[in-house]
Design a protein that fits this description.
221 residues; alpha/beta; two-stranded parallel sheet; 7 helices
């Protein structure tokens, strides 16, 4: 398959890209800089210059592909708008094709729970991630598109992600320097997934997951 991938140089995308190539797929990757273009080209993919908000670029690349995987995120206050722009461009481009579109959600849409969470657990998102719920529903209910949503847990590996931030964050010192502050009691538990495992999951999903598939990407620990 020829796969259009966003976020090919990010933490998740940098694992998805080699997983796709290892399984014999061709990959075109959206990039914003010369450095990112060189990085994905060296890995074996074809770079496509553009931004998540460049709907025309995203739509054209999606039309040219056999499937789309979206893992890019600004990781800031623009994340909801960027995801919505990609979602609209891709679903429009893939309309009536039955081609796969793998969209990235997040496990926190299920909210806090003292019990194990699975794909059937009702959504109970905090305000910070509530925007993910309607976007995910739009993907799963898309007609004539094989819509798939993957909701990652806390991704670790290669020193990146939230675990890397926590490990490398500032610490309080004897001189009164402020350390890293994490909301909560300190007793909360976050389920995790290794970046290499999630890379393979995305590849398997774009290949074979049925339309309307919702997957929690978590190792369970």
């Amino acid at each position: 398959m020829r796969i259009f991938l966003t976020g090919g140089t990010g933490q998740i995308g940098s694992a998805v890209l080699p997983a796709l190539l290892a399984r014999g797929h061709q990959v075109t990757a959206l990039v914003r800089s010369d450095r990112s273009a060189d990085q994905v080209a060296t890995a074996g993919a074809e770079p496509v210059r553009g931004d998540l908000m460049d709907s025309a670029v995203v739509a054209h690349a999606a039309q040219e592909a056999d499937g789309v995987i979206h893992v890019a995120s600004p990781g800031d206050e623009n994340s909801a708008a960027a995801d919505e722009a990609v979602l609209e461009a891709v679903l429009g481009a893939l309309a009536d094709t039955d081609k796969p579109y793998v969209h990235t959600g997040g496990i926190w849409v299920h909210g806090s729970s003292s019990q194990p969470v699975d794909e059937t657990t009702p959504m109970n998102p905090p305000q910070l991630t509530g925007w993910r719920v309607p976007q995910g529903e739009k993907v799963l209910k898309a007609e004539s598109v094989r819509g798939i949503v993957i909701a990652p847990g806390i991704v670790y590996g290669d020193g990146g992600g939230l675990p890397g931030l926590l490990a490398g964050g500032p610490r309080a010192d004897a001189d009164g320097g402020q350390g890293l502050v994490v909301p909560g009691t300190g007793q909360q538990h976050w389920t995790t997934v290794h970046v290499d495992d999630i890379g393979v999951l995305y590849a398997l999903a774009v290949e074979a997951a049925p339309a309307g598939t919702y997957l929690l990407a978590a190792g369970g620990e």
